[in-house]
Amino acid sequence: MDIKKIRELVDLMEEKDLLNLEYGHDDKYISLTRNTAVQTVAVPQVAAAPATAPTAPAAKTPSGKVETSPMVGVFYSAPSPNDPPFVKVGQKVEAGDTLGIIEAMKIMNPLEATQSGIIEEILVSNAEVVEFGQPVIRYKA
């Protein structure tokens, strides 16, 4: 396989926002994997109410870091419908652990933890369509 073909495959991965790509032709085979960094989402601050206005109890603002979807696809919380989910609320995970799967263009892409921590909230449901950059998992602060 020549370098030109490999560059075409890398360009295809970037164009289609793929994490994994496997290609085989004749007796040649290549498997490419792309790393993505976790994105944190800033929560905007609300301006303080005037001193004369009554104030309502403040809602708890989520403060933990989040894992976001690296692509548009369908989020699956377990390897198959009969298997237990990869993670549960309260579970401790290590960087590199699989948190779920995102199916994009019939390719199953693992969503891996980019940090160690305890799962505080799973922000999407099983088989829910997720967007690029959408928060999926939140860790305890």
TrEMBL record:
GO CC annotations, alphabetized: acetyl-CoA carboxylase complex
The protein's role, per its UniProt record: This protein is a component of the acetyl coenzyme A carboxylase complex; first, biotin carboxylase catalyzes the carboxylation of the carrier protein and then the transcarboxylase transfers the carboxyl group to form malonyl-CoA.
The organism's taxonomic lineage, starting at the top: Bacteria, Pseudomonadati, Pseudomonadota, Gammaproteobacteria, Moraxellales
Domain called Lipoyl-binding: residue spans: 63-140
SUPFAM superfamilies: Single hybrid motif
PROSITE patterns given in the database record: BIOTINYL_LIPOYL
Keyword terms of this UniProt record: Biotin, Fatty acid biosynthesis, Fatty acid metabolism, Lipid biosynthesis, Lipid metabolism
Record-linked CDD domains: biotinyl_domain
KW Lipid biosynthesis (keyword) present: yes
InterPro entries, per database record: AcCoA_biotinCC, Biotin_Carboxyl_Carrier/Decarb, Biotin_lipoyl, Single_hybrid_motif
Pathway annotation from the record: Lipid metabolism; fatty acid biosynthesis
GO terms assigned for molecular function: acetyl-CoA carboxylase activity
Coiled coil: none
Listed name of the protein: Biotin carboxyl carrier protein of acetyl-CoA carboxylase
Biological processes per GO annotation: fatty acid biosynthetic process
The keyword Lipid biosynthesis appears for this protein: yes
Top-rank taxon: Bacteria
Organism of derivation: Moraxella pluranimalium
A Pfam cross-reference name: Biotin_lipoyl
